[in-house]
Amino acid sequence: MSQYTAVTDADLAEMLSAIGVGSVQELFDRQIPADVRLGRPLDLPEGMPEQDVYAHLRDLAARNTGAEDEITFLGAGMYDHYVPAVIDMLLGRSEFLTPYTPYQPEVSQGNLQVMFEYQTAISELTGLPVSNASVYEGPSAVASAGYLARLANGRPKFVVSRGLHPHSRETLATYAHGFGAEIVEVGLRDGVTDPEAWAAAIDGETGAVFFAQPNFLGAVEDAEALAAAAKDSPAVVVGQYDPIPLGVLKPPGECGVDVAVGEGQTLGNRLDFGGPSFGFFAATEAYLRRMPGRIAGETVDADGRRGFVLTLQTREQHIRREKATSNICTAQALNALAGVVYLTWLGREGLVELGELLLQRTHHARERLTALDGVTALHDQPVVREFAVALDVGGTDGVRRVIARCQEAGVNPGYALGRDYEEYGDGLLVALTEQRSAADIDRLAEVLGAAVAAERADAEVAAS
Amino acid sequence: MQRDRATTIFEKGAAGRRAFVAPKLDVPEADADTLLPAHLRRSAPARLPEVSEPELVRHYVKISRRNFDLDTGFYPLGSCTMKHNPRLHERVAALSGHSRLHPMQSPEHAQGALELMYNLERALGEVSGLPHVSLQPSAGSHGELAGVLLTRAFHEDRGQQRHTVLTPDTSHGTNPATVTMAGYTVVKVGTNVDGGVDLDDLRAKADEDVACLMLTNPNTLGVFDPNITEIARIVHDVGATLYYDGANLNAIMGKARPGDMGFDIVHFNLHKSFTQPHGGGGPGSGPIAVSERMRPYLMNPRIVRAQDGSFDLDEQGYEKSIGRLRGFQGNYGCFVRSYAYICSLGAEGLRDASETAVLNANYLLAKLREHGVADKLPLAFGELCMHEFVLSGSPMKKDLGIKTLDLAKRLLDHGYHPPTVYFPLLVDEALLVEPTETETKETLDGFAAAIAAILAEAAEDPAIAQNAPYTTPVRRLDEAAAAKTPRIRQPIET
């Protein structure tokens, strides 16, 4: 018996007698052949009491530098937004935390309604009529959109902007290799997808095109123009969107985008070192029956009362098996709940206000940093929450050292772009949220200015 | 549970109401139109709900009460493993060093997280008998995709193009769906009279075009396939890989290991075997473990430990990697919980979990026999079972006029979540029962008695079960109507 099992000696005797065996071991001996039985204990440490486990996990946590331990401007796909207290409270309720997938709708109306509300909120956010009830996270959502295109038109070429998150590009490539599609990458010019190269890459063989809004360099793309370039081809237009800037940016549904996907972490989910969060997936009506994952729908019960069920399940793996539109079974229901609660908490005006605040702060931070010696803008496109600068410190290693110097002073200035983009070896990607105040931006400017100066001074000494 | 009419959050509130107060604009204000030109701008706000915080809280608390949940009720849900979720896990996962750790934080500033992941990899390697582990996949089916893509890379590396993957007809629906997504064709293998793989059918279908056989052992019939080493030999003889669907791993922890049975790849459902709250359908986590020959193809980045004991993420760690399957490092929040579970139980506790799961399943089966319902709900295969078992409701339907679905719905009125119904597909009127190790004998006794009571009642009047449930927030729902004219969002008055 452990702390999570409950069989007493008296129970055991009764249970074995009811079964008609002499021991638990006999149950295994009679079913598992001797040659595949493990004849020794697992080579793992002994179990620990709860307080020791807590202490161990706390010690591990203390060896990480979280967003409470420094002033951080790190983004690059996940952002340190404030998570309102109501989310902790609601997600902690056992009725939301511990139920299973709502296969028995009569006792799952809470979850099914949450899914229905979530779908409504994502539709409103994206301006697209249909939404599923979540997929794993951002990059696999992009890859799932690729699979949707594969099912829809079977064309073998995917045109992908280099502004798409590197993890999205890699994930899409991994999936596409499986189902047999080739990736053609289109480079960036002045911080955005090169419009001529983009148009030239799209042809009759193109099954889907992919871009990010804003893109990985923080630049706002002309999404409408990117989508328009594909309008005479059969290609599915896929945009990966950051949902918070959608408070101020033209929604994908008004830009000619067929499938809008993205990382939902910024909607009420924690950073959690990269997960769990959720991916959203919205589309035009034409793709409703090709969408991956679960969808909730409205119906009535035997007494005519309004109710909700999982619907269009014939797309799903548990019914269609090899003909399913995806293999997703367990997705991210609890994280999607955080998403819809967060959007409700912000409300209609709040999302706009948050977007405007980010727009102002990001612009201000860019002004402040590019006024520093040795710091220049990498592009001058519109930016909403994140921007890229170049540090004149001799490339990626220099940028990494500058970041380390800043962290010693308690400020994380952002992400070294050279980790993913050779062509921007001197790039630094700086992200804002509502949690980074004007004072924090001042501090960033001060610390970064000093770190760049120190790095350049050291380099000069080394060179002489 | 609440029974009032369902109203969505979009039907509540009033224009101008809000829960959010924006932080003050504390930077010099620039002309917003020059920062973001009109042609890139949204023209009207998204029509999100407009409610106060008290309205928001009350709405979601109210609808939460229209849910059945594991903390208040028994879920004998076969193949889904609904075991107790220790609250310690929520506490440790919420520590800011874990929960507010940025995934792009440099490895020097994430040593605790990397050590946790490294230790978890080692533990999963030991439990499975396959030493090389990647934690990246987001769910079991995502782990399956990883495994099949690894198989593809393995064959391509040997210059081979193979086209088919074998799955038994008892397999989880995710297996065939995964196979297709990974660009292979599914070939079904039959089941023999004992509930195991039909070896003759397997021999007939195993050829040089087969890339892989996907199997779970014990399988979804609750049967441990005694021919597993022979199955492995047949598959390996044609150069294919053997894939272990880990959905049922919780039946054998510390008792037997997929690696020792000849499997090349295994996925874990951390949310089943190693406890995660199911959250109404996620998050999950689906790490994979592989044998030496599959190691070079694992997903990058790889967690590595240096001589000085420090940890790093190596983007090129696996030389022939299939790449990435998702962003960042995987569902780390789930790793924290499962790692805490393994620390709590240790080697002995994990073995106890499997032993008790198997004990409870066999006891429940015996108890149903004791109630004399075995003639109406016979065990589909075998005498004993592993951690779950399949009953067939076929005689019940014939003799009493109630289907497995009716029985399931009537169980709701007794306060139980029904077992999995109509799966696996090859059993007529299937009822797949998994009591899990965390349930008490009293709970199992109560559940068996409820089944017996429902059958006795149906013998008198089948209409009672046929029209069930009666006590739930809504009565039986019209699923056909929902699919015919999909209404999947709330219409909004602007």
From TrEMBL, chain A:
Keyword Oxidoreductase attached: yes
Domain of life: Bacteria
Segments crossing the lipid bilayer: none
Biological-process GO terms, alphabetical: glycine decarboxylation via glycine cleavage system; nucleoside metabolic process
InterPro entries: GcvPA, GDC-P_N, PyrdxlP-dep_Trfase, PyrdxlP-dep_Trfase_major, PyrdxlP-dep_Trfase_small
Oxidoreductase in keyword set: yes
Residues of the Glycine cleavage system P-protein N-terminal domain: 4-448
Catalytic reaction equation(s): N(6)-[(R)-lipoyl]-L-lysyl-[glycine-cleavage complex H protein] + glycine + H(+) = N(6)-[(R)-S(8)-aminomethyldihydrolipoyl]-L-lysyl-[glycine-cleavage complex H protein] + CO2
EC number: 1.4.4.2
Summary of subunit composition and partner proteins: The glycine cleavage system is composed of four proteins: P, T, L and H. In this organism, the P 'protein' is a heterodimer of two subunits.
Function: The glycine cleavage system catalyzes the degradation of glycine. The P protein binds the alpha-amino group of glycine through its pyridoxal phosphate cofactor; CO(2) is released and the remaining methylamine moiety is then transferred to the lipoamide cofactor of the H protein.
Entry similarity comment: Belongs to the GcvP family. N-terminal subunit subfamily.
Annotated protein name in UniProt: Probable glycine dehydrogenase (decarboxylating) subunit 1
Source organism of the structure: Baekduia soli
TrEMBL record, chain B:
UniProt-listed Pfam families: GcvP2_C (PF21478), GDC-P (PF02347)
A molecular function GO annotation: pyridoxal phosphate binding
Superkingdom of source: Bacteria
SUPFAM superfamilies, per the entry: PLP-dependent transferases
EC number: 1.4.4.2
Signal peptide span: none
Glycine dehydrogenase C-terminal domain ranges (all copies): 353-460
One example of a Gene Ontology biological process annotation: glycine decarboxylation via glycine cleavage system
Requisite cofactors: pyridoxal 5'-phosphate
Gene3D superfamilies: 6.20.440.10, Aspartate Aminotransferase, domain 1, Type I PLP-dependent aspartate aminotransferase-like (Major domain)
Residues with the N6-(pyridoxal phosphate)lysine modification: 272
InterPro entries in alphabetical order: GcvPB, GDC-P_C, GDC-P_N, GDC_P, PyrdxlP-dep_Trfase, PyrdxlP-dep_Trfase_major, PyrdxlP-dep_Trfase_small
Catalytic activity: N(6)-[(R)-lipoyl]-L-lysyl-[glycine-cleavage complex H protein] + glycine + H(+) = N(6)-[(R)-S(8)-aminomethyldihydrolipoyl]-L-lysyl-[glycine-cleavage complex H protein] + CO2
GO cellular component: cytosol; glycine cleavage complex
Domain Glycine cleavage system P-protein N-terminal: 34-295
Record keywords, A-Z: Oxidoreductase, Pyridoxal phosphate
Keyword DNA-binding carried by entry: no
Keyword match Oxidoreductase: yes
Family named by the database record: Belongs to the GcvP family. C-terminal subunit subfamily.
Subunit annotation: The glycine cleavage system is composed of four proteins: P, T, L and H. In this organism, the P 'protein' is a heterodimer of two subunits.
Record-linked PANTHER family: GLYCINE DEHYDROGENASE (DECARBOXYLATING), MITOCHONDRIAL, GLYCINE DEHYDROGENASE, DECARBOXYLATING
Classification via NCBIfam families: PRK04366.1
Function recorded in the entry: The glycine cleavage system catalyzes the degradation of glycine. The P protein binds the alpha-amino group of glycine through its pyridoxal phosphate cofactor; CO(2) is released and the remaining methylamine moiety is then transferred to the lipoamide cofactor of the H protein.
The protein's name in its UniProt record: Probable glycine dehydrogenase (decarboxylating) subunit 2
Organism: Baekduia soli
